[in-house]
Amino acid sequence: MNHESTAAVKQARQLPLRRLLTLAALARKQMKGGSSFAAALDAAAEGLPSHARAALQSILYDIMRNLALTGALSRKLLNNPPPPPVLNILEAALALLVTKRYNEFTLVSESVNAIRGDQRTQRFSGLVNAVLRRFLRESDVLLKELSKMPEVRFNAPSWWIEKIRAAYPQEWEKILLLQRQHAPMTLRVNLRRTSPTAYLKQLTEAGIPARQIGSEAILLENPLPVHDIPGFSEGDVSVQDAGAQLAAHFLPVKAGARVLDACAAPGGKTAHLLELNDCRVTALEVAPDRAELIRETLERLGLSAEVRAADAADTKKWFSGEPFDAILLDAPCTASGIVRRQPDVPWSRRPEDIRRLANEQKRILEALWPCLKTNGQLLFCTCSLFPQEGPLQIREFLARHPDASMKPLGETGIGMMNLVPTEDGAWPNPQWLPSVHDGFFYALLQKN
């Protein structure tokens, strides 16, 4: 999981900003062509040292969190759009001017230099200079006017806004506004090595402000690169959203049980299951490179599991015929609940993706149900806010399977849970749920 940090921004100031803007424009070109944020970042950052990659990633996050605004600004400030390489750099510069991470004079100058540095775009350097300086003169009026547009206010396309509004008529504005913010950096304490109380003391002694927000969840007030986090390399903690940490608690696992983690990369939930239980876990991941991430996670934590690169729904290729005591299915979804961490999601998804991914979830659920023992339990979870990828999926599954029943999730007493992104509230609370988390859905099914 990637996190922005103040250190990355400071390091960016020591790098040629014109080069970072050029690389950011390249990444935007690839995203417009259909690449994911991660793939575009990997391609643009190829060969860069880690601090330069972190600086580029931070710029790309700023671009994606202000995508609707910079698009509206460029339409407002330009009579005719320039070629895509110029427009991409211009909109990147506008995003950074809005976030105020850089000195205005330096940013304008380096943006113009980035345009001049390419023979194909150098004739537009005057235009870019004029547009950016006009924005600085008129920014208060422009931002006030454009913020009235729903797409700009929530940084999401209109169809996305309407889907969230329909699903959460009372909370939709709060959800959308919260998803514009930077993601919190939450750690999961490895109870096999330490305790939340002891680890908080360690952070205090290191001068790192933090607080407990869940049973094993510690929130860092200021994000850090993972290798600067005390005890990370030794396996004392992992980076994982507090809402995602509920999965290992909601799936009942007895000592010695055989457990399947069906869509396991990058391995956070697999590791948490093993930290809490003396069990045997098989972790599946369809992409071999992502399966390797699971192995790396387990190795850092000193844990072991059977890790296989396989399609969970293609049981003929991996299932031995011996049913599992428990199954965790963190199903593919739109990721609509984790937009703070993946700000490109509203822009990279299409309305039809909701139904397409719900069908993929159904395919995996149907394939895995025969792999579960009688009286065994399957925890279905997604990081989605859309009902088709949560409550509706489970209701339809129960209607098709008379041998399935819903069980309470931990101590909550409920069988299905929609967690919307939350940034406030005290912990511990009566439900013992984390007080800061992203959006998730959970349902626990038992095979009768």
Automatic annotation (TrEMBL):
Note the PROSITE patterns from the entry.
NOL1_NOP2_SUN, SAM_MT_RSMB_NOP
Give the record's GO CC terms.
cytoplasm
Keyword list (alphabetical) reads: Cytoplasm, Methyltransferase, RNA-binding, rRNA processing, S-adenosyl-L-methionine, Transferase
Biological process terms in GO annotation: regulation of DNA-templated transcription
Which residue windows are coiled coil?
none
The EC number(s) given in the record are 2.1.1.176
Amino acids binding S-adenosyl-L-methionine: C263, A264, A265, P266, G267, G268, K269, E285, D311, D330
- Compartments in which it is found: Cytoplasm
Which Gene Ontology molecular-function terms are recorded?
RNA binding; rRNA methyltransferase activity
Broad class of the protein's primary localization: cytoplasm
InterPro entries per the record? MeTrfase_RsmB-F_NOP2_cat, MeTrfase_RsmB-F_NOP2_dom, NusB-like_sf, NusB_RsmB_TIM44, RCMT, rRNA_ssu_MeTfrase_B, RsmB-like_ferredoxin, RsmB/NOL1/NOP2-like_CS
Q: Which reaction does it catalyse?
A: cytidine(967) in 16S rRNA + S-adenosyl-L-methionine = 5-methylcytidine(967) in 16S rRNA + S-adenosyl-L-homocysteine + H(+)
Could you tell me the superkingdom of the organism this chain comes from? Bacteria
* Residue numbers annotated as active site: C383
UniProt domain SAM-dependent MTase RsmB/NOP-type: residue ranges: 175-448
Give yes or no: UniProt keyword S-adenosyl-L-methionine.
Answer: yes
Protein function? Specifically methylates the cytosine at position 967 (m5C967) of 16S rRNA.
The similarity annotation says: Belongs to the class I-like SAM-binding methyltransferase superfamily. RsmB/NOP family.
NCBIfam families per UniProt: PRK10901.1, rsmB
Please report the name of this protein according to its UniProt entry. Answer: 16S rRNA (cytosine(967)-C(5))-methyltransferase
Q: Which gene encodes it?
A: rsmB
